[in-house]
Model the fold of this input.
Amino acid sequence: MNDISRRKLITTGLAAAGGVLGLGVAARLAQEYGLIPPDHGGIYGLGETLTYASQRLLTRHSFAREFSRSQISKRPFANEIPPPSEAFKRLQAGAFADWRLSVSGMVARPSSFSLDQLKSYPSRSQITMIQCEEGWSYIAEWNGVPLSHVLDAVEAQPQARYVVYFSIYPDWWESIDMADAMHPQTFLTYGMNGDELPVAHGGPLRLRVPRQLGYKNVKYITHLTVTDSLKSFGKGLGSSAPEGGYSWYAGI
Amino acid sequence: MISHPRFYWGETGNDLTPPLFKLPIPASRALVPTGYGYVLPDQNGWSRYLHFQAAWVVVFTGLLYVIFALLSGHLRRNLLPGRSDLSWRAFSTSISSHLRFKRPSEVEAWSYNLLQRISYLFVIFVLFPLVIWTGLAMSPAFVSAFPATVNVLGGQQSARTLHFFVSLALVLFLLVHVAMIFLAGFWSRMRPMITGRAATPVERT
Done:
């Protein structure tokens, strides 16, 4: 056992204290800049926080790859969905004329949009990839209105930090932070490969988030809530994904 | 892997496109045509959480290890083959000694032999960087910031297939590595790792 000098003890002690203080400052800054994900608790919380924070910082201005027309998949796979409810079947029978997207929360003008109204907004298209966490993928052309446009129309308030979005299926809801919500590639999609968005792929309305995995791209969107805190939604973990054991942030 | 035991090459692939190869196992998703009449329970949620947390551990400790190895001379002294070992003769002698299960002398056993050095260098500087690279190439967010990561590999599904094979190689290394440790003497190898001290051949005589 070596003798520990007083100097060594003091410097080591100061370094350790500095380290702990530094971590505390980092945590406070992370909180301030919205770098802590809602599922930051539990044994995987540290890894999840590191992943979300680093990828959030890296992707401030990045765009998901957009492909050429020739790269559009001839066989886009539509994943399993539960059987449609009576409400959905009625809407489908009416050619979704009565489909409504309601928007509430931290907005100056809570509104309800029909598909025709959404289609009257400037439409954009993108040829991007859907990558499922299961391991498969396909490329398609998506047509829709950027979510940012809708958020501007309802005048989302500046202190808002997240957009929570709900499917017609009651247990399927997700949320994204404002950086993703306002991103030009985040679409409320109603068209796919030149046609109306097929029901199997989420028609009449799906949220496309191409910089995250497939399960954030919720199908059959009926409602959006703009908020500054995810704590009051479900179990407060951010979305139905962590409630089912999956990470809230799906950038990887 | 269990949720989609099919591997492709290029950008995309799914249940409707022909795979490069399939794993003959049941899947944890009903729509995958595995031919088995049942579906395994879904373990992807927590496994992904664990996988990405472990990835951070690997990256942090790996970086510390490489920096330490470079600065302390560990790389130069213990991992890089010595000048006399850089010949075909030395290489084939090492292989034939291993194949004949020839036991090394006490002095020889004190430092890593040629095959060990080559294996360790390959794992540290080829396999680990590749597994990290191909992993990041499957991240839609990371790739949006650095598209070359996946473009250079030939596409997202190519990255996935490569990631699979590199991880297999790492698992194979782990199994052989642990077997070798047991063959060489478990405690005699573990003790120095923990205490930092070991009896050198000189000390013991």
User: Anything to note?
Assistant: The mean pLDDT of chain A is 95. The radius of gyration of chain A is 22 Å. Residues 6-32 of chain A form the longest helix (27 residues). Chain A touches chain B through 42 residues (CB under 8 Å).
